[in-house]
């Protein structure tokens, strides 16, 4: 897939095959958000904006990289805001490098792995209040070497570590993410690696 194709998010969303009802319903809403004409690629839109997350696995598909998120006080996936970038795969890869210190991370596939609309409660970030809003999230399945050194990004996380697939789910303190997102990602990943 070339960079232009990766930047055509509408086509990617239309081509995406939902895994379950959550992805089906969220894809409908994501396409509807795109039709509003609002700028969804920057945080200037305080109601909703694009984010990209990564489910980072080892080459065998047995381990998951997680970071201890300072705001949510939970072990969680890595990712961040598009901040004007339209290639969301590049955003996911950039965020993994920034948040974990990994130098090499590669896509298992350049296609969207999962879709989610995530609610973000109001919170303080760097001393400034951020109102509640939505993250219009695209998730990619990425791969890295678990022997490669990792480090925390102090302004965002307090640690980075590899977990077993089940351990990654258990490590999260956020029930909705454990039950509806991380478990789903593991199930999808198992099917991907066995197929």
Structure, described:
- The protein has one domain: Nucleoside Triphosphate Pyrophosphohydrolase (Alpha-Beta Complex).
- The chain has helices at 3-7, 9-15, 21-34, 88-100, 165-171, 175-194; strands at residues 48-57, 63-69, 74-76, 78-81, 106-107, 114-120, 123-125, 128-130, 133-143, 157-164.
- Helix 5 runs antiparallel to helix 6.
- By secondary structure, the protein is an alpha+beta fold.
- The strands form three sheets. Strands 1, 4, 5, 6 and 9 form a five-stranded mixed beta sheet that branches. A three-stranded antiparallel beta sheet has the order 3-2-10.
- The mean pLDDT is 93.
- The protein contains six helices and ten strands, in the order H-H-H-E-E-E-E-H-E-E-E-E-E-E-H-H.
- Helix content is 34%, strand content 30%.
The stretches of 5 or more residues where confidence is low (pLDDT under 50) are none
Span of the ends, CA to CA: 21 Å
Got a strand count? 10
Rg result:
16 Å
The rough form would be described as globular
How many domains, in number, for the residues? 1
Structural class: alpha+beta
User: How would a crystallographer describe the biggest sheet?
Assistant: 5 strands, mixed
Q: Which fold name is given in CATH as the topology?
A: Nucleoside Triphosphate Pyrophosphohydrolase
User: Quick one: CATH superfamily?
Assistant: Nucleoside Triphosphate Pyrophosphohydrolase
Whole-number mean pLDDT: 93
Q: Tell me the CATH architecture.
A: Alpha-Beta Complex
Order of helices and strands: HHHEEEEHEEEEEEHH
Helix content: 25-40%
Q: In percent terms, what proportion of residues is strand?
A: 25-35%
Structure annotation, total helices? 6
The CATH C-level class name: Alpha Beta
């Amino acid at each position: 897939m070339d960079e232009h194709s990766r930047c055509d998010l509408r086509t990617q969303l239309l081509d995406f095959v939902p895994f379950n009802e959550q992805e089906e319903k969220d894809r409908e809403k994501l396409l509807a958000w795109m039709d509003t004409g609002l700028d969804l690629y920057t945080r200037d839109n305080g109601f909703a904006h694009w984010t990209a997350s990564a489910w980072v696995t080892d080459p065998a598909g047995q381990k998951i990289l997680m970071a201890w998120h300072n705001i949510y006080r939970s072990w969680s996936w890595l990712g961040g805001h598009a901040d004007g970038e339209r290639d969301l795969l590049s955003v996911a890869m950039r965020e993994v490098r920034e948040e974990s210190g990994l130098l090499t991370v590669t896509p298992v596939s350049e296609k969207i792995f999962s879709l989610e609309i995530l609610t973000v409660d109001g919170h303080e970030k760097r001393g400034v209040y951020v109102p509640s809003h939505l993250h219009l999230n695209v998730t990619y399945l990425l791969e890295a070497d678990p022997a490669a050194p990792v480090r925390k990004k102090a302004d965002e996380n307090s640690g980075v570590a590899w977990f077993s697939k089940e351990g990654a789910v258990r490590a999260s303190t956020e029930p909705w993410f454990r039950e509806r997102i991380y478990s789903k990602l593991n199930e999808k990943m198992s099917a991907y690696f066995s197929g």
